[in-house]
Write a structure and sequence with these properties.
About 30% of the residues lie in helices and about 35% in strands. By secondary structure, it is of the alpha+beta class. The strands form three sheets. Strands 1, 14, 15, 16, 19 and 20 form a six-stranded mixed beta sheet that branches. Strands 2-9-12-11-10-13 form a six-stranded antiparallel beta barrel. It has a four-stranded antiparallel beta sheet with strand order 6-5-3-8.
Length: about 400
């Protein structure tokens, strides 16, 4: 009879252990406790007035640029500027040896004086012959010869004056002056070098940096889309500020002074399909140098009823199309297919998919699904995500001994 008694005691002990585990609320391998209603952070989609801008790449270009070349030949005697300095228009840059040009000028001045003296005698003779031929004291032929000599003398004086002016100009060209004001670069010659008139190599280059041009390129297709949007009324001209341009430097920093759009080219580049736009910027401190890569931000127009949504609220489906979740009147999630137009900062500008007043899910949509009932809280940038906030607000759970 001992074995039946032992079996009964073992069964009773197992039954007691099972009851104890059930009382403690931790059945081994059982399902987890059910979670509460999910909490999501939402924003109310509202239309707003948005300035539409375009960020275009470009390069800086001097406002004025002039290559300094000699107009007469000779030996460079002196260089009168410091490389890399600012020069004024009319300031002397180089001095070519003027000795031969000065001699030519003096010779032509003397030739002019001789021609003028000869003209004086010829004129007096022609005037006397004019009176004598009237009384037939001299022949008509003599008078005609005297009148012709007078005309020839006048022509000789005019030619001598022209020679004097030419030699004066060449003498002045021996002093090479700055054609424009600006910053001068390095010199390609030193004193003692031989230069020739209109040589191919420039002696130096002067560039005016204040103001300075910025040439940017825009696809012609984008310009056509902009015109079509304005024609449909989707965009409106931004008034007097339409010509204002902001500049971003190569390191991403903003250039403080604003520029002004000067013109857009009338020809499309056949190789790139782009059109060139030119803006002018003040550059008092020469922060912008020719050839720098920059990005110009142009204000294209204004959209009065634009819908902007945070980028983190938009995800992509398996085909790459943008989607988002909204909360309907029954506090249930609905998936919407969106059509975005462009990114503006950390937001998307929408073409379609949402309407004003929709409750857009921004936070907590990672495990969202259509038809799920949720609780909503207002989403604010910089605040803890909804999941972390809910976790922090939930009472701490621990093992409870009974």
């Amino acid at each position: 009879m001992r074995p039946p008694l032992t079996f009964g005691l073992t069964f009773a002990a197992a039954l007691a252990s099972a009851c104890l585990l059930a009382a403690c609320g931790k059945p081994p391998g059982g399902p987890p406790p059910a979670e509460g209603t999910p909490v999501v952070g939402v924003v109310t989609v509202q239309p707003q007035r948005v300035a539409i801008t375009a960020e275009l790449p470009g390069r800086t270009t001097p406002f004025l640029i002039a290559d300094v070349r000699p107009q007469v030949g000779g030996i460079v005697k002196t260089r009168k500027f410091r490389e890399g300095s600012d020069v004024k228009a009319g300031e002397t840059l180089y001095q070519i040896d003027p000795a031969t040009y000065k001699a030519t000028y003096d010779s032509n001045v003397a030739a002019l004086a001789k021609a003028q003296a000869s003209l004086k005698t010829t004129r007096l003779k022609a005037e006397r012959y004019k009176e004598l031929v009237a009384i037939q004291a001299v022949s008509q032929q003599d008078y005609d010869d005297a009148a012709a000599s007078l005309q020839q003398g006048e022509a000789d004086v005019a030619a001598a004056k022209a020679n004097v002016e030419t030699s004066r100009i060449n003498l002045a060209y021996a002093r090479i002056d700055a054609p424009i004001s600006g910053r001068i670069g390095k010199s390609t010659v030193t004193p003692g070098a031989l230069v020739t008139a209109s040589q191919a190599t420039a002696l130096a280059t002067i560039q005016q940096l204040d103001p300075i041009y910025v040439d940017v390129t825009q696809p012609s297709a984008a310009m056509l889309q902009l015109k079509q949007a304005m024609a449909r009324g989707d965009l409106q001209k931004s008034g007097a500020n339409a010509a204002r341009v902001r500049l971003l430097l190569e390191d991403g920093s903003a250039y403080p002074p604003e520029g002004k759009l000067e013109f857009s080219d009338v020809t499309v580049d056949q190789t790139t399909g782009a059109i060139t736009l030119r803006a002018v910027f003040p550059n008092p401190n020469a922060d912008l140098l020719p050839g720098m890569y920059v990005r110009a931000v142009l204000q294209e127009g204004v959209k009065e009823q634009a819908l902007l949504v945070p980028q983190q609220a938009v995800s992509r489906d398996s085909t790459g199309k943008p989607t988002a979740f909204v909360v309907d009147a029954q506090h249930k999630l609905q998936r919407r297919m969106l059509e975005t137009e462009r990114a503006i900062g950390d937001q998307w500008l929408l073409k379609s998919g949402l309407q004003a007043g929709d409750q857009l899910v921004v936070d907590g949509q990672q495990r969202a699904a259509s038809g799920v009932e949720v609780k909503t809280v207002q989403w604010n940038p910089g605040v803890k995500p909804v999941a972390e906030a809910a976790k922090a607000a939930a009472p701490a759970s621990g093992n409870t001994a009974n």
